[in-house]
Automatic annotation (TrEMBL):
GO CC field: plasma membrane
Source organism (scientific name): Mycobacterium scrofulaceum
InterPro entries the UniProt entry points to: Surf1/Shy1 (IPR002994), Surf1/Surf4 (IPR045214)
Compartments where found: Cell membrane; Membrane
Domain of life: Bacteria
Region named Disordered: 246-278
Similarity annotation: Belongs to the SURF1 family.
Main subcellular localisation: membrane
TM annotation in the entry: 12-33, 214-237
Lineage of producing organism: Bacteria, Bacillati, Actinomycetota, Actinomycetes, Mycobacteriales
Topology relative to the membrane: Multi-pass membrane protein
Protein name: SURF1-like protein
Length: 278
């Protein structure tokens, strides 16, 4: 136990606490965070790939009721017949499309014999900084649209909706929030129009099928969590070995007696005596 007494010094205690806290964060926060992002990205990539290779299906097969949502069918192409509510419009602000700022234009769409869904008509570019440009109204008659099913986004925290340039604007496409603002019941998922659709504006493409670096980042954090305590153990072992060698050297020095002085011969004594008088 005496050999390990140095571990109770404040410096070693602080180092041990830092290593323990870092290891805990690696395994419980940092690695799960990156691995979770990898799982979500991989899942979305599979959904996009499936949608690209599958024919559209009727919207009512996935959203049969007003309160329906279809998180497992995100990006799936669907068709729906119905009519827009042209007097109801909401803009999603601070969006970036193809590397440039944009507004996404949202409008309710009443499906014949089905739910009312929020439709993302596409995007328009702001004018003179962040001002809303003129936006064409959607058709008022019955039309058939093809769109991609999308999950409702989380409400942006700390950013309340606002009205600017005469347009109601939000920071996220959340069907519950838009429904509360417009007083129009909306299904849980929303639609994003594909190209050449009635009421469509600038087409929003699908994301690139790229898993990103999240898996490698997650593995790196796991590796860091393993290496940190091993490194601390190595330093402790090295310190113990160094202290053991130091003690052995001290013990060896104390155990070695000084060599006794050899008695001088008669010749040496005479040399010392007569040499001093010369």
């Amino acid at each position: 136990m005496r050999r390990l007494a140095f571990l109770l010094r404040p410096g070693w205690i602080a180092l041990g606490l830092v290593v323990v806290a870092f290891t805990y964060l690696c395994f419980t926060v940092l690695a799960p965070w990156q691995l979770g992002k990898h799982n979500r990205t991989s899942r979305e990539n599979r959904q996009i790939e499936y949608s690209l290779n599958t024919a559209p299906v009727p919207l009512k097969s996935l959203l049969p009721q007003q309160d329906s949502s279809a998180p497992d069918a995100q990006w799936r192409r669907v068709t729906a017949s119905g009519h827009y509510l042209p007097d109801v419009q909401v803009l999603a602000r601070l969006r970036v499309i193809e590397g440039k700022p944009a507004f996404e234009v949202l409008a309710p769409f009443v499906v014949d014999g089905g739910p009312t869904v929020l439709v993302d008509r596409g995007y328009v570019r702001p004018e003179q900084g962040s001002h809303v440009p003129p936006i064409p109204r959607p058709p008022g008659d019955t039309v058939t649209v093809t769109a991609r099913l999308r999950d409702s986004e989380a409400v942006a925290t700390g950013r309340a909706p606002l009205t600017e340039d005469g347009a109601l604007q939000v920071y996220s496409i959340n069907t519950g929030q838009v429904s509360a603002l417009t007083k129009v019941p909306l299904a849980g998922s929303y639609l994003q129009l594909t190209e050449d659709q009635p009421g469509g504006l600038g087409v929003i493409g699908v994301p690139h099928l790229d898993a990103g670096p999240f898996l490698s980042y997650g593995i790196q954090w796991i590796s860091f969590g393993i290496v940190a305590p091993l490194g601390l153990g190595y330093f402790v072992y090295s310190e113990i070995r160094a202290r053991r060698r130091e003690k052995e050297q001290q013990a060896g020095t104390a155990a070695t007696p000084e060599a006794p002085e050899r008695p001088k011969t008669v010749e040496a004594k005479l040399a010392d005596r007569y040499g001093r008088h010369r």
